[in-house]
Design brief:
The protein is an alpha/beta fold. Helices cover 43% and strands 11% of the residues. It contains eleven helices and seven strands. Strands 1-6-7-5-4-2-3 form a seven-stranded parallel beta sheet, sandwiched between helices. Helix 8 (224-242) links the parallel strand 6 and strand 7 (245-250). It is globular and about 50 Å long. It starts with a strand and ends in a 19-residue tail after the last helix.
Length: 337
């Protein structure tokens, strides 16, 4: 078993990107941020009901993870902070925004809302509102990969608060016993719902799988290149049939737990310092400029993304709400006798 360890920043030659490839990843990161900024605005306007958990600040994790997965083969399941992983997987911004606003054109016909986006066409098996539930459900995806012998890997995201859940440890146990192809990713954004990690969790999260024999690493989740390198190695390990792997992505959310959380448990100075010194988008943008991409081209890319998000918001607001009869659909799975 590989020992648990902390991952340093860097980029191996095997994961080197051309300027065009890096620009495409930057575009996804900008899309996720602008999309969730718009979602926050719509929530404030009363267009989104219930809760809305923004992904702003964590973009390097979702984009870095998906950039090294095999499209059409590997599967993803995540939590209620799911727009990042969905858009990184190529999810349609219009469908996603329509779902957030409860419209019939949404990915779940407007019945899922912000915590239940789902897109099977992209092997994205949803955001789930029950804390920690993505671990056992991800186990099911991994079991399906092994049963079908299709070579796929299941990626199950969870938050730092979920890392103390009993069902997560039960999932670790089963994943090892059955040697399932699953990569557990803990997105440690430091504050769970609103309590600093050192006040609710004992020990290092990346070592949570050690008692079961699951190797783990702590990764700089604000650095796209480090995320790609760590996920690539971990997926290779899992895909080779050696069983599960655990990555703790140390990241930072810029907004509260949900839109109703003013995040008074941290100082404005701490937040601003992260934005000034560790922002994942700025890091990639600086690399693009260093690689020779013209700033005007980067601005054009950013304007294009802004237009996509504006069109998604307009599409959502102009879409109808689900018909009352939709209340009775998709509630049972038909069984053929």
């Amino acid at each position: 078993m590989a020992a648990a360890k902390k991952k340093k920043s860097g980029q191996s030659n095997s994961l080197a990107l051309t300027t065009e490839e890096l620009a495409a990843l930057y575009r996804k990161m900008v899309l996720i941020r602008r999309f969730d900024e718009k979602a926050g605005q719509l929530y404030g306007m009363g267009m989104i009901g219930g809760f809305c958990h923004l992904y702003i600040g964590q973009e390097a994790v979702a984009v870095g993870v998906h950039s090294v997965l095999e499209k059409g083969k590997d599967t993803i399941i995540t939590t209620y902070r799911e727009r990042g992983p969905l858009l990184a997987a190529g999810g349609d911004p219009k469908e996603a925004m329509a779902e957030l606003t409860g419209r019939a054109t949404g990915s779940s016909a407007g019945k899922g809302g912000s915590m239940h986006l789902f897109d099977q066409s992209r092997n994205f098996y949803g955001g789930h509102g029950i804390v920690g539930a993505s671990a056992p459900l991800g186990l099911g995806l991994a079991f399906a990969h092994k049963y079908r012998d299709d070579g796929g890997v299941a990626v199950a995201y969870m938050g730092d608060g979920a890392a103390n859940q009993g069902q997560v440890f039960e999932s670790f146990n089963m994943a090892v016993l059955w040697k399932l192809p699953i990569l557990f990713i803990i997105e440690n954004n430091q504050y769970s719902m609103g309590t600093a990690l050192n006040r609710h969790a004992s020990g290092d999260l990346y070592r949570r799988g050690e008692p079961f024999g699951i190797p783990g690493e702590q990764v700089d989740g604000m650095d796209l290149f480090t995320v790609r390198e760590a996920v690539s190695s971990a997926v290779d390990y899992v895909r080779s049939g050696q069983g599960p792997y655990l990555l703790e992505m140390k990241t930072y959310r810029y907004r509260g737990h949900s839109m109703s959380d003013p995040a008074k448990y941290r100082t404005k100075e701490e937040l601003q310092k992260m934005k000034d010194e560790r922002d994942a988008l700025n890091t990639v943008k600086e690399r693009l400029i260093a690689d020779g991409m013209a700033e005007d081209d980067i601005k054009a890319l950013e304007r294009e993304v802004k237009q996509i998000v504006a069109e998604a918001a307009e599409f959502a607001q102009q879409s109808p709400e689900p018909a009352p009869a939709e209340l009775w659909t998709d509630t049972l799975i038909p069984v053929e006798e």
